[in-house]
Specification:
Elements lengths: L26 H11 L5 H15 L1 E2 L13 H7 L1 E2 L1 H14 L4 E10 L4 H7 L3 E12 L2 E5 L5 H7 L25 E10 L4 H11 L7 H7 L1
Parallel strand pairs: 1-2
Antiparallel strand pairs: 3-4, 3-6, 4-5
């Protein structure tokens, strides 16, 4: 499914539609979106509430299962209570759409300048490809938000927590809590209506030595 070439305001409806993976019409997701946003007036306030629910209630886990498309469905991430960046961002996208707020996914590569040496040696790089986050349409413009790292992870990793007011772009910080260079966005891969599962898996297999990654070791280093 592709958006039309009409002016932006004429095809916002496209970014409200469910995808094969981001199935925002799932009754469980619609019900959850309603429960999170009940009593809130305006898209900015409702977007902010959804952001914090995903950021804080779904624990970040880089070792969440990723080997099947269904692992990325919003309801599956809610049931697990954890996920990595793409899964948490897909959940936020689905909840926003269910709440009537146009939303889509953005993918980018960033460099983590404070990556632990043990993790660097295992991955063979400090570049994180196809990091997923969210772009949403609020008060007449598109803004971006990253609901990925919960406060506990940020505390352990000396990361600055990402805060979101519902109106301003809020992505990963370029410096950590000690003022050291941290996250550097180096490449953007595009905007997507749904999770590009096959594309992500192909790139992961090309960039990372999947046969050398030990989940138990990574869990100890997280």
């Amino acid at each position: 499914m592709e958006p039309t070439t009409k002016p932006e305001h004429e095809y916002l409806e496209f970014w409200l539609q469910p995808g094969d993976i981001i199935d925002s019409d799932d009754p469980a997701i619609r019900s959850l979106a309603e429960s999170i946003t009940t009593g809130l007036a305006g898209d900015a306030e409702r977007a902010r509430a959804i952001f914090y629910w995903v950021r804080d209630r779904i624990r970040y886990n880089m070792l969440a299962p990723i080997d099947r498309p269904e692992h990325y469905r919003p309801a599956a991430t809610v049931a697990r209570g954890e996920g990595y960046c793409v899964q948490k961002s897909a959940l936020m996208t689905g909840l926003l759409r269910a709440a009537g707020i146009p939303a889509r996914m953005v993918f980018a590569t960033f460099i983590n300048h404070q990556l632990r040496r043990e993790v660097y040696d295992m991955l063979g790089t400090n570049r994180f490809v196809y990091h997923g986050f969210v772009e949403l349409f609020v008060e007449g413009r598109w803004i971006r938000a990253t609901p990925v790292f919960d406060p506990d992870v940020c505390e352990r990793m000396d990361m600055k927590t990402v805060e979101f007011d519902g109106r301003s772009t809020s992505v990963l910080h370029p410096v950590d809590r000690k003022g050291r260079p941290h996250i550097e966005y180096v490449e953007e891969h595009g905007i997507y209506h749904d999770v590009p599962y096959d594309e992500i898996m192909t790139v992961f297999a090309r960039v990372y030595p999947m046969d050398k990654i030990d989940p138990e070791t990574l869990a100890e280093l997280e």
